[in-house]
Amino acid sequence: MTDETIPAGKFDYVIVGAGTAGCLLANRLSADREVTVLLVEAGGKDDYPWIHVPVGYLYCIGNPRTDWLYRTCAEPGLNGRTLSYPRGRVLGGSSSINGMIYMRGQREDYDEWARVTGDSSWSWDAVLPVFKRSEDHHGGANEWHGAGGPWRVEKQRLKWKVLEAFHEAAQQTGIPATEDFNRGDNAGVGYFEVNQKRGVRWNASKAFLRPALSRPNLTVVTNAHVRRLVMEGTRYTGIEYWRDKLEARRFVARARCEVIVAAGAVNSPQLLELSGIGNGARLQRLGIEVVRDLRGVGENLQDHLQLRMAYRVEGVRTLNTLSAHWWGKLWIAAQYALSRSGPMSMSPSQLGAFAKSSTDDESITRPDIEYHVQPLSLDRFGEPLHRFNAFTASACPLRPTSRGSIHIESPDAHAPPTIAPNYLSTDYDRHVAANALRLTRRIVASPALERYAPTELLPGIEFQTEDELVKAAGAIGTTIFHPVGTCRMGTADDPGAVVDARLAVIGMEGLRVVDASVMPTITSGNTNSPTLMIAERASEMIRADRLARTGTVAVSARDAISAPIT
After folding, report:
1. Measured between alpha carbons, how far is residue 122 from residues 111, 257, 357 in Å?
2. Other residues' Cβ atoms within 10 Å of the Cβ of residue 359
3. Sequence-separated contacts (24+) of 170-179 with Cβ below 8 Å
4. Using CA of residue 348, residue 83, residue 41, residue 247, what is the dihedral sign?
5. Which of the ends of the chain has fewer CB neighbours closer than 10 A, N or C?
6. Coil, strand or helix: which one is 277?
7. Is residue 314 within 8 Å of residue 331, measured between CB atoms?
8. Is 137 among the residues known to form the active site?
């Protein structure tokens, strides 16, 4: 093995992971010309063409070029099935392979974070301006949205008759229409807004990293697999990483100020455990020296389970049959080539709805189900579309009480961690899942869809009782790729907390975690843009802490968007 060491103190900040959070942090921190920043990413550049075509997620998920290819353990709540667990391994991270839906969640989500951390700066009223700061909304700036930021938000560029019918059917079931899911109360049915720019995926790499690449104080290293964090005395001062699978070249990068772990809800707890931070007894069994006994590392895993109900329809065209013939494929390709519209421009789900799983339960005060509705159907993700017209309505319980875990089983940094989401492990989650299936059936039975004679394909109308519906949920349920919470925020006296309200690892110096893993509870909706907001807040905290240490002038958050380097 050849040791090659980047000189100690070369960088002020070392960021692990060029995903959603890492790309933003690299931009914001390097905007201060007085600091130097190193960003390391295990994957490669985001130059794979299918990343940028919206429908290309089909070719990115399950592709070792862009995906870590993780799998879960056998899940008892899913009738013993294991699931693929996509995570982006490329510049932009999961923002390069996800569904592109722009969603913030609900006011109460953030107010709960403020309560758990004892820090009101995580409340909805405090984080709304942070969301707006990043945003470039197609409708311009107003009370709820920002304009001119790097994070482009646009309307989708196509509609389908069958989705229009579902939109009407949801209203007939009592779900009101809405034009905007992002005002703190996302109740209603409407079309998702997406992170695209003129029909092309807008990932975190394009939005934040590329504009900063010309800065001489930012260094980006790809294909760099971090082995462990480096500690000197009581402070974390760098990282050790390899540049190739043969581990023939080892590098050590040093940080004068901080090491920032932004590797995501799977890889951040993995790296902490590899570095001796985690449940002491577990680490000792693996032969890893315990640096800090933090029992919460890798615990508190939360994810949204989607219950994919599919319906065959008559008298209306869907993507199933449109894409089944050569002339349909040619037409689809021509639409995208000429106008960046049509099916190739669509996100995985176009129509959304947020509703209460039961209108009879007075304890449900806000929507606890999210729908992702698609003009297509298939037996399983990655398999061919059905050869007949159909649509899929995926119901996602928004606030599961089930908690899972992610842990290493080996001190080998290349060994994948064990992922155990523990779906449907509580009575509450099983009951909400059963209610979600019932609600979907009520919507589909509404007059607006009756004209298309929908026939339930999945899970099948034979599932009727509560126990049968829970079994059906276990048969059709799958992840919708929203893992969070494995290094959660909390107070110093909270035995399950990993980071404090300023995202510093509790009891450690020079180390923060900044990504979806710090969420105490999952947001009521898609999790990519909330992760971006977390990184925006973290960049403010990091700059403020540097100012307090050095007395230097920090670049403002607004100026950091596009501050020139001279």
Report:
1. 7, 24, 27
2. 12
3. 170/353, 170/355, 170/371, 170/443, 170/446, 171/448, 172/446, 172/447, 172/448, 173/355, 173/439, 173/442, 173/443, 173/446, 174/359, 175/353, 175/354, 175/355, 175/443
4. negative
5. C
6. strand
7. no
8. no
Q: Residue 61 corresponds to which amino acid?
A: I
Residue 181 to residues 29, 151, 153, 174, 355: CA-CA distances in angstroms?
31, 17, 13, 17, 12
Tokens, residue 315: 């008298």
Residue 49: cis peptide before it, omega within 30 degrees of 0: no
Q: How many CA atoms lie within 13 A of 465 on its CB side?
A: 2
74 three-class SS:
coil
What is residue 291's DSSP assignment? Answer: S
Q: Which two tokens stand for residue 248?
A: 């023939």
The radius of gyration computed from the CA coordinates of the chain, to the nearest angstrom, equals 23
Query: Which of 145, 304, 407, 482 does the annotation list as catalytic?
Result: 482
pTM: predicted TM-score of the whole model, two decimal places: 0.95
- Provide the residue-wise pLDDT of the chain in tens; the chain has 566 residues: 334 556 555 899 999 999 999 999 999 999 999 999 999 999 999 999 999 999 999 999 999 999 999 999 999 999 999 999 999 999 999 999 999 999 999 999 999 999 999 999 999 999 999 999 999 999 999 999 999 999 999 999 999 999 999 999 999 999 999 999 999 999 999 999 999 999 999 999 999 999 999 999 999 999 999 999 999 988 999 999 998 665 567 899 999 999 999 999 999 999 999 999 999 999 999 999 999 999 999 999 999 999 999 999 999 999 999 999 888 889 999 999 999 999 999 999 999 999 999 988 888 999 999 999 999 999 887 788 999 999 999 999 999 999 999 999 999 999 999 999 999 999 999 999 999 999 999 999 999 999 999 999 999 999 999 999 999 999 999 999 999 999 999 999 999 999 999 999 999 999 999 999 999 999 999 999 999 999 999 999 999 999 888 776 444 444 443 333 32
Q: Are 531 and 503 spatial neighbours (Cβ–Cβ below 8 Å)?
A: no
Report the alpha-carbon distance of residue 245 to residue 123 in Å, rounded: 43
